[in-house]
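User: Could you go from structure to sequence for me? I need the amino acid at each position, not a summary. Structure tokens:
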């Protein structure tokens, strides 16, 4: 089995708004295509994140293995250019 694709989302992927519905659909489609997916839900308020949310995002990304395939929801990463640069 191939290593998983890591999807990092701000908050719960179970939220029923446009971006989260899209993220959940990506997970379903990738899984149906045989791509293993690991979802990482980052606590905190995004966009305009408070320091705790930025720290949680940084921690979530730091735990991923070197060379991992990662997709980060734009609501989280767009608000954190310093984290994105790493």
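Assistant: Here is the amino acid at each position, in order:
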């Amino acid at each position: 089995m191939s290593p998983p694709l890591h999807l990092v989302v701000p908050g719960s992927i179970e939220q029923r708004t446009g971006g989260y519905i899209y993220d959940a659909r990506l997970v379903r489609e990738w899984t149906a295509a045989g791509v293993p997916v690991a979802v990482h839900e980052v606590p905190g308020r995004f966009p305009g994140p408070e320091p705790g949310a930025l720290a949680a995002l940084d921690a979530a990304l730091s735990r991923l293995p070197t060379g991992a395939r990662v997709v980060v929801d734009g609501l989280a990463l767009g608000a954190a250019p310093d984290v994105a640069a790493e």
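One structural detail worth keeping in mind: Strands lie at 5-10, 37-42, 69-72.
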